[in-house]
Known about the structure:
Mean pLDDT: 95
Structural class: alpha/beta
CATH topology: Rossmann fold
Number of helices: 13
CATH superfamily: Vaccinia Virus protein VP39
Distance between the termini: 33 Å
Radius of gyration: 18 Å
Strand order of the largest sheet: 3-2-1-4-5-7-6
Order of helices and strands: HHHHEHEHEEHEHHHHEHHE
Low-confidence stretches: none
Shape: globular
Strand content: 15-25%
Amino acid sequence: MNKSYARSDVLNFYKELPFNYYEDLDIAAKSIRNTNFSNVYPVLPPILKKGVKVLDVGCGVGWFVNAINFHYKEYGSSASGIDYNSTAIKRADEIAVRLGIKSDFSETDLFRYKPKNRYDLVSSIGVLHHTNNCIAGLRHIFRNLIKPSGSAFIGLYHKYGRKPFLDHFDKLKMKGLDEDQLLKEFNVLFSESNDKQHNLSWFYDQVLHPHETQHSLAELMPILHSEKMELVSSSINKFELFRKEDELFEKEKQYYELAVQKIRKKIYFPGFFVFLAKKDGVKI
Protein backbone atom coordinates (compact mmCIF):
# COMPACT_ATOMS: atom_id res chain seq x y z
CA MET A 1 0.00 0.00 0.00
CA ASN A 2 1.27 3.47 -0.89
CA LYS A 3 2.47 5.69 1.92
CA SER A 4 -0.01 8.45 2.68
CA TYR A 5 1.08 12.05 3.20
CA ALA A 6 -2.38 13.24 4.19
CA ARG A 7 -2.46 15.13 7.51
CA SER A 8 -4.94 14.38 10.27
CA ASP A 9 -4.85 17.96 11.57
CA VAL A 10 -5.79 19.28 8.13
CA LEU A 11 -8.58 16.73 7.81
CA ASN A 12 -10.00 17.62 11.24
CA PHE A 13 -9.72 21.33 10.43
CA TYR A 14 -11.80 20.96 7.27
CA LYS A 15 -14.33 18.70 8.94
CA GLU A 16 -15.17 21.62 11.23
CA LEU A 17 -15.81 23.88 8.23
CA PRO A 18 -14.93 22.81 4.68
CA PHE A 19 -13.47 25.40 2.34
CA ASN A 20 -15.88 27.30 0.07
CA TYR A 21 -18.85 26.13 2.14
CA TYR A 22 -22.17 27.91 1.66
CA GLU A 23 -24.71 27.55 4.44
CA ASP A 24 -27.51 28.19 1.95
CA LEU A 25 -27.75 25.40 -0.63
CA ASP A 26 -29.59 27.67 -3.06
CA ILE A 27 -26.74 30.18 -2.99
CA ALA A 28 -24.23 27.36 -3.48
CA ALA A 29 -26.18 26.09 -6.48
CA LYS A 30 -26.51 29.60 -7.89
CA SER A 31 -22.75 30.14 -7.66
CA ILE A 32 -22.22 27.05 -9.83
CA ARG A 33 -24.87 28.08 -12.34
CA ASN A 34 -23.05 31.41 -12.64
CA THR A 35 -19.60 29.84 -13.00
CA ASN A 36 -17.88 30.72 -16.25
CA PHE A 37 -14.65 28.81 -16.79
CA SER A 38 -13.83 31.05 -19.74
CA ASN A 39 -13.34 33.88 -17.25
CA VAL A 40 -11.86 31.89 -14.37
CA TYR A 41 -9.70 29.30 -16.17
CA PRO A 42 -9.79 30.10 -19.90
CA VAL A 43 -7.56 27.15 -20.84
CA LEU A 44 -10.17 24.62 -19.70
CA PRO A 45 -13.22 25.11 -21.97
CA PRO A 46 -11.41 23.89 -25.12
CA ILE A 47 -10.63 20.67 -23.25
CA LEU A 48 -14.01 20.30 -21.60
CA LYS A 49 -15.79 20.66 -24.92
CA LYS A 50 -14.14 17.47 -26.20
CA GLY A 51 -16.14 14.97 -24.15
CA VAL A 52 -13.48 14.20 -21.56
CA LYS A 53 -13.47 12.31 -18.26
CA VAL A 54 -12.28 14.49 -15.39
CA LEU A 55 -11.13 13.71 -11.86
CA ASP A 56 -10.88 16.45 -9.24
CA VAL A 57 -8.44 15.53 -6.47
CA GLY A 58 -9.38 17.14 -3.16
CA CYS A 59 -12.77 18.14 -4.53
CA GLY A 60 -14.05 19.56 -1.23
CA VAL A 61 -17.67 20.65 -1.48
CA GLY A 62 -17.67 19.92 -5.20
CA TRP A 63 -17.53 23.32 -6.91
CA PHE A 64 -15.25 22.20 -9.75
CA VAL A 65 -16.93 18.83 -10.35
CA ASN A 66 -20.49 20.13 -10.16
CA ALA A 67 -19.67 23.08 -12.39
CA ILE A 68 -18.31 20.76 -15.09
CA ASN A 69 -21.26 18.41 -14.86
CA PHE A 70 -23.70 21.30 -14.98
CA HIS A 71 -22.12 23.29 -17.82
CA TYR A 72 -20.36 20.69 -20.00
CA LYS A 73 -22.64 17.66 -19.91
CA GLU A 74 -23.96 18.59 -23.35
CA TYR A 75 -20.43 18.12 -24.73
CA GLY A 76 -20.17 14.63 -23.29
CA SER A 77 -17.76 15.59 -20.53
CA SER A 78 -18.21 14.30 -17.00
CA ALA A 79 -16.35 14.86 -13.75
CA SER A 80 -15.99 12.99 -10.48
CA GLY A 81 -14.24 13.95 -7.28
CA ILE A 82 -12.32 12.42 -4.42
CA ASP A 83 -11.69 13.95 -1.02
CA TYR A 84 -10.58 12.69 2.38
CA ASN A 85 -13.28 14.72 4.12
CA SER A 86 -16.67 13.04 4.54
CA THR A 87 -18.26 16.33 5.63
CA ALA A 88 -17.26 18.00 2.37
CA ILE A 89 -18.36 15.00 0.28
CA LYS A 90 -21.81 15.07 1.89
CA ARG A 91 -22.20 18.75 0.98
CA ALA A 92 -20.97 18.19 -2.57
CA ASP A 93 -23.66 15.53 -3.04
CA GLU A 94 -26.33 17.84 -1.63
CA ILE A 95 -25.39 20.61 -4.05
CA ALA A 96 -25.47 18.21 -7.01
CA VAL A 97 -28.98 17.16 -6.03
CA ARG A 98 -30.04 20.79 -5.75
CA LEU A 99 -28.66 21.41 -9.24
CA GLY A 100 -30.46 18.36 -10.62
CA ILE A 101 -27.27 16.76 -11.90
CA LYS A 102 -25.44 13.50 -11.30
CA SER A 103 -21.94 13.80 -9.81
CA ASP A 104 -19.80 11.02 -8.38
CA PHE A 105 -17.97 11.87 -5.15
CA SER A 106 -16.03 9.46 -2.95
CA GLU A 107 -14.20 9.67 0.36
CA THR A 108 -10.69 8.67 -0.66
CA ASP A 109 -7.06 9.30 0.26
CA LEU A 110 -5.29 10.62 -2.84
CA PHE A 111 -2.03 8.88 -2.03
CA ARG A 112 -3.70 5.46 -1.94
CA TYR A 113 -5.99 5.95 -4.91
CA LYS A 114 -5.21 3.96 -8.06
CA PRO A 115 -8.29 3.78 -10.31
CA LYS A 116 -8.75 1.00 -12.85
CA ASN A 117 -9.43 3.58 -15.55
CA ARG A 118 -7.37 6.73 -15.80
CA TYR A 119 -8.65 10.19 -16.70
CA ASP A 120 -8.29 12.63 -19.59
CA LEU A 121 -7.92 15.54 -17.18
CA VAL A 122 -6.98 15.47 -13.49
CA SER A 123 -7.32 18.65 -11.48
CA SER A 124 -6.13 19.45 -7.98
CA ILE A 125 -6.76 23.05 -6.99
CA GLY A 126 -5.47 24.31 -3.66
CA VAL A 127 -4.99 20.86 -2.14
CA LEU A 128 -1.50 19.39 -2.47
CA HIS A 129 0.16 22.21 -0.52
CA HIS A 130 -1.85 21.10 2.53
CA THR A 131 -0.28 17.62 2.54
CA ASN A 132 3.05 16.50 3.99
CA ASN A 133 4.50 16.01 0.53
CA CYS A 134 3.21 18.14 -2.33
CA ILE A 135 5.76 16.71 -4.77
CA ALA A 136 4.74 13.13 -3.97
CA GLY A 137 1.15 14.16 -4.64
CA LEU A 138 2.09 15.58 -8.02
CA ARG A 139 4.04 12.48 -8.99
CA HIS A 140 1.16 10.23 -7.94
CA ILE A 141 -1.24 12.19 -10.12
CA PHE A 142 1.11 12.15 -13.11
CA ARG A 143 1.95 8.44 -12.78
CA ASN A 144 -1.29 6.83 -11.66
CA LEU A 145 -4.29 9.00 -12.50
CA ILE A 146 -3.73 10.55 -15.94
CA LYS A 147 -4.13 8.72 -19.23
CA PRO A 148 -1.09 8.57 -21.53
CA SER A 149 -2.90 11.21 -23.58
CA GLY A 150 -4.06 13.21 -20.57
CA SER A 151 -3.49 16.51 -18.83
CA ALA A 152 -3.17 17.88 -15.31
CA PHE A 153 -4.52 21.17 -13.99
CA ILE A 154 -2.83 22.06 -10.71
CA GLY A 155 -3.28 25.00 -8.32
CA LEU A 156 -0.84 25.81 -5.50
CA TYR A 157 0.20 28.62 -3.20
CA HIS A 158 3.00 30.60 -4.78
CA LYS A 159 6.44 30.91 -3.19
CA TYR A 160 6.69 34.66 -3.82
CA GLY A 161 3.07 35.74 -4.12
CA ARG A 162 1.85 34.14 -0.91
CA LYS A 163 4.37 35.63 1.52
CA PRO A 164 3.01 39.21 1.77
CA PHE A 165 -0.47 37.93 2.64
CA LEU A 166 0.88 35.62 5.34
CA ASP A 167 3.21 38.33 6.67
CA HIS A 168 0.34 40.79 6.90
CA PHE A 169 -1.76 38.52 9.08
CA ASP A 170 1.22 37.26 11.08
CA LYS A 171 1.95 40.85 12.09
CA LEU A 172 -1.65 41.33 13.18
CA LYS A 173 -1.49 38.14 15.21
CA MET A 174 1.74 39.35 16.84
CA LYS A 175 -0.06 42.54 17.82
CA GLY A 176 -2.56 40.42 19.69
CA LEU A 177 -5.58 40.69 17.42
CA ASP A 178 -8.13 38.00 18.23
CA GLU A 179 -10.03 35.88 15.73
CA ASP A 180 -12.92 38.32 15.37
CA GLN A 181 -10.54 41.18 14.66
CA LEU A 182 -8.61 39.12 12.13
CA LEU A 183 -11.87 38.19 10.43
CA LYS A 184 -12.83 41.84 10.23
CA GLU A 185 -9.54 42.64 8.51
CA PHE A 186 -9.96 39.69 6.15
CA ASN A 187 -13.43 40.89 5.19
CA VAL A 188 -11.95 44.25 4.24
CA LEU A 189 -9.90 42.40 1.63
CA PHE A 190 -12.41 39.72 0.75
CA SER A 191 -16.18 39.76 0.53
CA GLU A 192 -17.33 37.10 -1.88
CA SER A 193 -21.00 36.73 -0.98
CA ASN A 194 -23.77 37.53 1.47
CA ASP A 195 -23.46 34.04 2.92
CA LYS A 196 -21.50 34.60 6.15
CA GLN A 197 -20.59 30.93 6.45
CA HIS A 198 -19.02 31.06 3.00
CA ASN A 199 -16.84 34.04 3.85
CA LEU A 200 -15.91 32.43 7.17
CA SER A 201 -14.80 29.27 5.36
CA TRP A 202 -12.46 31.36 3.23
CA PHE A 203 -11.10 33.17 6.29
CA TYR A 204 -10.34 29.92 8.10
CA ASP A 205 -8.70 28.48 4.99
CA GLN A 206 -6.58 31.54 4.26
CA VAL A 207 -5.66 32.81 7.73
CA LEU A 208 -6.02 30.02 10.30
CA HIS A 209 -4.98 26.93 8.37
CA PRO A 210 -2.78 24.47 10.34
CA HIS A 211 -0.38 23.63 7.50
CA GLU A 212 0.63 24.82 4.04
CA THR A 213 3.64 24.98 1.77
CA GLN A 214 4.43 27.37 -1.08
CA HIS A 215 5.88 26.57 -4.49
CA SER A 216 7.05 28.08 -7.76
CA LEU A 217 7.05 27.05 -11.39
CA ALA A 218 10.85 27.11 -11.43
CA GLU A 219 10.87 24.62 -8.56
CA LEU A 220 8.25 22.36 -10.14
CA MET A 221 9.50 22.21 -13.73
CA PRO A 222 12.21 19.58 -13.06
CA ILE A 223 9.46 17.42 -11.54
CA LEU A 224 7.27 17.85 -14.61
CA HIS A 225 10.17 17.08 -16.94
CA SER A 226 11.11 13.93 -15.03
CA GLU A 227 7.50 12.74 -15.29
CA LYS A 228 7.34 13.47 -19.02
CA MET A 229 4.85 16.31 -18.51
CA GLU A 230 4.95 19.41 -20.71
CA LEU A 231 3.85 22.81 -19.43
CA VAL A 232 1.05 24.24 -21.58
CA SER A 233 0.07 27.45 -19.79
CA SER A 234 -0.10 29.14 -16.40
CA SER A 235 -1.88 31.93 -14.60
CA ILE A 236 1.60 33.39 -13.97
CA ASN A 237 1.32 35.16 -17.34
CA LYS A 238 -2.49 35.09 -17.48
CA PHE A 239 -2.48 31.93 -19.60
CA GLU A 240 -0.85 33.69 -22.52
CA LEU A 241 1.52 31.94 -24.93
CA PHE A 242 5.18 31.77 -23.98
CA ARG A 243 8.28 30.75 -25.90
CA LYS A 244 10.49 29.49 -23.10
CA GLU A 245 9.77 28.39 -19.56
CA ASP A 246 12.43 30.83 -18.34
CA GLU A 247 10.10 33.69 -19.30
CA LEU A 248 7.64 32.46 -16.69
CA PHE A 249 10.34 31.95 -14.08
CA GLU A 250 11.37 35.59 -14.40
CA LYS A 251 7.78 36.79 -14.37
CA GLU A 252 6.84 34.87 -11.26
CA LYS A 253 9.58 36.63 -9.28
CA GLN A 254 7.49 39.80 -9.68
CA TYR A 255 4.67 38.19 -7.72
CA TYR A 256 6.14 39.26 -4.39
CA GLU A 257 6.03 42.98 -5.17
CA LEU A 258 2.63 42.61 -6.83
CA ALA A 259 1.28 40.99 -3.68
CA VAL A 260 2.79 43.72 -1.49
CA GLN A 261 1.05 46.40 -3.55
CA LYS A 262 -2.27 44.55 -3.40
CA ILE A 263 -2.13 44.29 0.40
CA ARG A 264 -1.28 47.98 0.71
CA LYS A 265 -4.30 48.83 -1.41
CA LYS A 266 -6.51 46.48 0.65
CA ILE A 267 -7.09 44.21 -2.34
CA TYR A 268 -7.42 40.48 -1.83
CA PHE A 269 -4.45 38.63 -3.31
CA PRO A 270 -3.81 35.21 -1.75
CA GLY A 271 -0.71 34.40 -3.79
CA PHE A 272 -2.08 31.44 -5.72
CA PHE A 273 -1.20 30.11 -9.17
CA VAL A 274 -2.38 27.36 -11.49
CA PHE A 275 -0.82 25.59 -14.43
CA LEU A 276 -1.92 23.18 -17.15
CA ALA A 277 0.47 20.40 -18.17
CA LYS A 278 0.08 17.49 -20.60
CA LYS A 279 1.87 14.28 -21.33
CA ASP A 280 4.79 14.98 -23.68
CA GLY A 281 3.97 14.94 -27.35
CA VAL A 282 0.21 14.95 -26.91
CA LYS A 283 -1.90 17.63 -28.58
CA ILE A 284 -4.71 19.28 -26.61
